[in-house]
Amino acid sequence: MAGSLLGRHFLKLLDFTPDEIRGLLDLAARLKADRRVGRRGARLAGKSVALIFEKPSTRTRCAFTVACIDEGAHPEYLGKGDIQLGKKETVADTARVLGRMFDGIQFRGFAHRTVEQLAAHAGVPVWNGLTDAWHPTQILADVLTVQEEFGRLEGIALAYAGDGRNNVARSTLVGGAKLGMDVRVVAPKALFPEPDLVATVRAIAGETGGKVTVTESVEEGVRGAHAIYTDVWASMGEEDKIAERIALLKPYKVTRRMMELTGRPEAIFLHCLPAFHNLETDMARQHPEICEVEDEVFEGLQSRVFEEAENRLHTIKAVMVATLAG
Predict the structure, then answer these.
(1) Is 115 within 8 Å of 128 (Cβ atoms)?
(2) Which of 117, 132, 272, 304 is catalytic?
């Protein structure tokens, strides 16, 4: 890892150099290998970690909790009803209290400004478990999965199909560009990422040897892709936009045909989860057309979604170890 990350916040990948990101991936791979043979560490022994959740979660909550326990730390879950964050107490005041009691703070919620305020006032490392703008811990898990599959990241083509403005798509652009990948967003023009971000990641790709494509053409966007990635069409808090998103995104549903259009039999499918891949959830039953991926793809031989989900644990553990233990 190029330089120590001790004491650093982890809010978005734009804040980190390519070498620092690669260092986190290398550390995650070592920690994963240790866990596979039953080795647990004590790198965070004696430390306490606050886990603030405005939005509920399966993978983020469990990954942070297990990562803490594996390395000897105590995790404390703080849900919406457990603390006064932004209600009776300002974010800044909450941060200054928690920073005197905990060694690190994770935040998963809505406004990115909230996690920035926590970082500004806590005096301890703050990690972004998800905001409306960015999802950096997710992208670390994604690229680790791709690296495990293909043995490298440089030159690997990763196509994100769906809402190009959401936190996962935006973070995928940054992570892919930083790591020299051929990263693509395949979306309707109404859901393209903002031009300023596209210009930023293209400049980054120019320095790393990567490539950035934003297109509404499915054929162009997935041709030659090593991996196709998608997310739900309406994120948490966007339920009122479901009908609009279905109309816009139906052509971008990941199907067996889309996987074939890559021209690569070895291409893999990725999803950050949860996924509406069948009609077995309440949301999917209410809106049958909302399934963003065919069940045959999600459950098929090309799917790596559960390897990807497991890698949330190892990459989150790497972030905490690097920023708390150095």
Answers:
(1) yes
(2) 272
Hunting for tokens 């791979």 — which residue is that? 29
Annotated active-site residue 312? The verdict is yes
pLDDT tens digit string along 239-268? 788 999 999 999 999 999 999 999 999 999
Residue 239's SS3 state is helix
User: Nearest CA to 52 among 42, 41, 43, 60?
Assistant: 60
Residue 2 reports pLDDT greater than 60? no
Q: Which residue has the tokens 């199909």?
A: 161
Our answer to whether residue 108 is catalytic in this structure is: yes
Measured distance CA(274)–CA(254) in Å, rounded: 15
Q: Would residue 165 show up in a list of annotated catalytic residues for this protein? A: no
Other residues' Cβ atoms within 10 Å of the Cβ of residue 148: 15
Residue type, 105: I
Instruction: Give the dihedral of Cα atoms 149, 290, 173, 218; nearest 10 deg.
Output: 80
Q: What pTM does this model have?
A: 0.96
Instruction: Mark whether 257 is an active-site residue.
Output: no
Which of 9, 61, 68, 138 does the annotation list as catalytic? 138
**Residue 191 to residues 187, 212, 239, Cα–Cα distance (Å):** 6, 16, 16
Is 291 designated active site? Answer: no
**Based on the number of CB atoms within 10 Å of its own CB, is 238 exposed (0-12), middle (13-18) or buried (19 or more)?**
middle
Query: Quick one: what percent of the chain has pLDDT higher than 90?
Result: 91
Instruction: Provide the CB-side half-sphere exposure for 59 (13 A, CA).
Output: 23
Q: Is 135 a catalytic residue?
A: yes
The whole-angstrom separation of Cα 314 and Cα 28 is: 5
Rounded to a whole number of angstroms, the distance between the first and last alpha carbons of the chain is: 10
Those residues whose C-beta lies under 8 Å from the C-beta of residue 81, and which sit 6 or more positions away, are none
Tokens 């053409």 label which residue? Answer: 217
Residue 148 belongs to what H/E stretch?
helix 136-150
